[in-house]
Specification:
mainly alpha; two-stranded antiparallel sheet; 7 helices; about 0% strand; elongated
Length: about 210
């Protein structure tokens, strides 16, 4: 009987040590990181609203070339991607396992640097290609603002954003917080695309 109690106590002690080790490895989202993420979401949101404000139908629909997106198509893509990416974080990213010992600062900075870099071109996946799903460019902006509000609410309130790590198209794993940065960086990437269209010498004056 005494031997059995000794075995049970030993197993319980080992479990406590394991839990302590996991706790020691867990990396909480700092207030500074949360502020950085929120500011990035807010800044990109405001810039997109400013870049698309007051456009005429001709300006919304102008294409620099037949195979290039218009401002309207780019805005639709931004709005649709906000939904899809946040859904991936909630449904998959937040269910992924942890990966202790990651260089958080390096990975955070990599997302913010790599995603907006338009020197590296990428094809939009089929579900995110423009199809006029919102009916009008202004409706796409409205949808984007509503979806961005949900993303910001998620960042504010979701626990354990550093505790779930999943694969990404960057060839590196991202935790759920870094995926939120990815959402903001994606909108920055396509904000640049909108500005490129508007800077075209043939862009309508009105």
């Amino acid at each position: 009987m005494r031997k059995m109690r000794t075995v049970i106590y030993s197993m319980a002690f080992a479990a406590l040590l394991c839990a302590a080790a996991i706790s020691a490895y867990s990396q909480e989202l700092s207030a500074a990181d949360k502020d950085r993420g929120m500011q990035y979401l807010e800044t990109t949101k405001k810039s997109i609203v400013e870049a698309t404000k007051g456009l005429s139908a001709a300006q919304w629909n102008f294409k620099a070339a037949p195979d290039r997106w218009s401002v309207a198509e780019t805005m639709e893509h931004i709005a649709a991607a906000e939904d899809l990416l946040r859904g991936m974080i909630v449904e998959k990213g937040m269910k992924a396992p942890a990966e202790p010992g990651r260089d958080l600062t390096k990975n955070d900075d990599a997302v913010v640097a790599m995603i907006p870099d338009r020197s590296h071109k990428a094809q939009a996946p089929e579900p995110l290609k423009p199809t006029n799903r919102y009916g009008a460019p202004e409706a796409a902006v409205k949808h984007f603002l509503e979806s961005r509000a949900q993303t910001e609410e998620f960042l504010k309130n979701a626990p354990g954003l550093r505790e779930h790590v999943s694969d990404s198209p960057l060839g590196m794993k991202l935790d759920a917080y870094e995926w939120v940065l990815f959402v903001a960086a994606h909108s920055e990437r396509h904000l640049k695309q909108i500005l490129e269209v508007k800077a075209d010498p043939n862009f309508p004056k009105a």
